[in-house]
Every structure is written in structure tokens, then in C-alpha cells.
């Protein structure tokens, strides 16, 4: 994992920080453009508003890989620590986002799919642009070669062949990052946020860190093969929404039982076990995508069963849970994503 020099790390983690925190909210962007699909885009004006707010409000924007290593080794982060990420290697990140990041002196990570880069696609970054961005805090990480649905079999493919293909999708990018840019942070963002235990074990075996697309805050208790991030584009681009996420804390959980990665024709449910402590647990609220509030059944003082009213449609569905802390200024946050498959999609569900 690429590390900052000790003096720089010390500066980034102490300067302007009156307190320390043991968790990290991570922002996720894709396009920085007003003409690209709204669901995955922020306009340059919105992105500047976000970055201006981080600066003005005293947030400490950290290098992602270094911050994660600090969390795993019990080293405190500065108060108001945050990291910035982008998925996909879109040219508009360089054209519209990078000048703003550079002006503010913010480090950032871009998860790149190398297929279109190697083909010279005009809407994607070039290696020379990435080298330029590296000099101003840019780090480039793995988003596979072809951005596939990683859990789907190709026509006529066996499970063994699928596993070999996925390993190749990951290893080819790692090799290119090392040869073209000099190093790899050994991090991957799963395309569409989809992974299963086979894929996560592959990532663990390679000593990599993996990211999904569920929302939440990273702490030492997180699964470092499937870390959460907060989307900050499209319907989540409003500054008021961003402020709530930046103040979020990790839900204090001892255990999660969610029935696995896949949903079926039955409504999903999960059992959450809170750590011992004083919480406003009866202010816990959970929301099911497309359905509204989930039902909550408290089994005892620390165990709650969260259940959707209806089955998810085919695709990805989620439940987001939040609970105010004692001060009322922050929310504990947890999200879980399930995949409901269709037979023609040929998902590997074991």
C-alpha cells in the first residue's frame, strides 16, 4: 500500500485538528459534468460547492490508502477526517474535477477500468493525465479491466472459468498500475458495488482492500473487503445531504445477520446486534429502497430484527439504518445491499 512520508502524514493528521476520530466517511463520485447521466454526475459548480464547503468547514481531506492503514493499526485520524473517491476513469474528472481538487490541495483516489484507457477512448483518462494528477495528490486504483458484472457467468462459462476470469480482471489492472504509474495502492472498487464471498476472499488473499456501493462509515470493525462509501452525486448532490453524511458515525454493531448477498421472492430481513453502551436505540430508523420504513422488532435491549414489507424487484435493493447519537448532532449509519437475480442473468449465487 502506497504510504505518505511520515512528516506529511503527521501534518495531514494533526494540523487544525483539536480532536481525533477513529472512523472515516468516504465520498463517492463518478462524472464531474453537467451533460452526463444525472444519476452518477455532479456539475462542476456542484463539485466546487462541495469542495469549498469541506475547506471552509475545516474538514481534513486525507489520502484514502493512508487513512485506512491508520484505522487498521489503531492510529487516530484528525477530527473531521474525510476521503474523496471517483469510480471509472472519465476524462471529465481531469477536465472539471482535478482543477478544483488541485486548487484546494485535496488528495483523491480514482478507481479506473483500464479497458477503455488502453483502447484510447476519448471520454476516458490517459496515462499521461494520470501521471500529472499523481503529482498533485491523485492516486489510481483498481476498478477491473472491462467493468463487468463480476458475479455473472458469461455464455457457456463454468464457475471455475468465471473465477479465473475475475482473477484476471483484477490482476491485469494491478500490473498496469505498477508498470504505468509506478505503484498500486492495492484497492479495488467493485463494478456496480457487487461482490460475493468468493470475490471478497480473492481480494483478501491478494492483501487488497475492497469497496462496495453501500453507504456508511469505515471503522476498524468494517469488512475491509467490502467497505462502504457515501454517494455524493445525482440525487445526493445537495449540500444539505452531504453535510449529514460528513457528520455520520459507524453504527455500533457487534453482529449482523443478513441472510447473505442475495434476495429472493421473500422480503429481506436482517438482525442487528448493538454493542453495549448508551444509545438512543429507540430512535433507530431503517428505510427500505422503494418502500419506506422497515419494521423493527426489538428482541432484547441490544438486538433488533429489521424487515422489509415486500420483496425487492430484480436488481440491487438496500436498507439504510440511522440512529442519532446522544448529542443529536451526528447519526450512526449502516446500510446493507442485496441482489435479486433473474435466471437469464446467470449469477454465481453460491
UniProtKB/TrEMBL annotation:
The Gene Ontology CC terms held by the record are:
extracellular region
| Protein name, UniProt field | Polysaccharide deacetylase
Has keyword Hydrolase? Answer: no
Q: Which organism is it from?
A: Marinomonas communis
Localization, per the record, is: Secreted
Keyword terms:
Signal
Note the CDD domains from the entry.
Answer: CE4_DAC_u4_5s
Q: Name one GO biological process term.
A: carbohydrate metabolic process
Output the Pfam families linked to this UniProt entry: Polysacc_deac_1
Where in the numbering of this chain does the NodB homology domain appear? 80-350
Answer whether the UniProt record assigns the keyword Acyltransferase to this protein: no
Q: Gene3D superfamilies annotated for this entry?
A: Glycoside hydrolase/deacetylase
Query: Molecular function terms in GO for this entry?
Result: hydrolase activity, acting on carbon-nitrogen (but not peptide) bonds
Broad class of the protein's primary localization: secreted
Signal peptide positions on this chain: 1-20
